[in-house]
C-alpha cells in the first residue's frame, strides 16, 4: 500500500484533520484513551528563494496544540511538533513555543465548580534526526513526586505542580527502522523513512496485513492524502523550501569558514609581524647596548688620556 509520507507538514496536518485518526494516534502515544479533542494549529510562515529559479516560496510551519479529555476524566493541553531535521536553533524555537502556551490565557478549563484551572501540558516531539545518545524509538519523560526526606514517591498529584511542569514524549523517527516490538511501534511504522518508496520519497510502502487492525484508519487516511493533488504539490514546495534552507545553511557555513580562515591568516600575519617587531626590538636593544659599551670605552680612554696628561704635567714641573 502506498501512503503519503507524514513527515511532511502538509501530510501531518491532513492526518490530524481527521478527529478519529488524531484520537487514535494520540491515544496510542499517551497510553490513555482520548475521548475528545480540539486542535488549534498555529501557522508560522517562512519565505525563501526557490533553489532553481530564485522565485520566492512561502511555506507554512505548523505547530499543533490540542486540548484532550482522557478516559480518567483529566484534561491536558497536548503540544505537538514535527521536525524533519534538527539544528542548533530548534531547541530555542521549541522553548519559545512552549513558553507561549504556558502564558496563553486561553489554555484553561473549568472545574466542576466553574473555576478556571490551567491546563496541564504534555509535549510530543517527532524528530526526523533523533537524540544523539538515546537509542530508543519512543522516549517518555514522566515526572515523579518524591518526598525528599524519605525518597518515597508521593502518589497524589497537585494542580499547582501539574500546571507548572510537564511530561514529554519524543518520537525518534530515525530510530524506528525495523523496530515493531509493540503496537505503538507498529503504528509508528507510518513515520519510518526506511519504508520510503524508491520511486517517490513522498510515499511510503506499507504492508497493511502487518499493521494493527484497529489503527488501519490511519493508513487509509494517509493513502487518501497521497492521492490529493494539492497535498502532493505542497510536498514539492516543502522539498524546495528545505533545499533552499540547506543551501543557505551551507553558504553560511562556507562564509563562516572563509571568515575563520581569513581571521586565522590575519592572526598568523600579526604573529609574524609581532615576531619581526620582537627581532627588531632585540636588534635595537643590542645596538643600544653596543653604543653604551662604546661610550663606556670612550669614557675609559678619555680618563686614561687625562691621567697621562696629568702625569706629563707633573713630570715637567719636576
Structure overview:
The chain has helices at 9-16, 19-30, 90-103, 159-164, 183-187, 216-227, 229-317; strands at residues 2-4, 34-39, 42-49, 56-70, 75-83, 108-110, 116-118, 121-127, 138-141, 166-172, 203-205. The radius of gyration is 37 Å and the shape is elongated. The chain is of the alpha+beta class. Strand 3 (42-49) and strand 4 form a beta hairpin. Mean pLDDT is 84; it is low at 45-51 and 55-60. It has 7 helices and 11 strands. The strands form 3 sheets. Strands 2, 3, 4, 5, 8, 9 and 10 form a 7-stranded mixed β-sheet that branches. It has a two-stranded antiparallel ribbon with strand order 1-11. Strands 6-7 form a two-stranded antiparallel ribbon. The protein has one domain (2-227). Helix 1 packs across helix 7 (229-317).
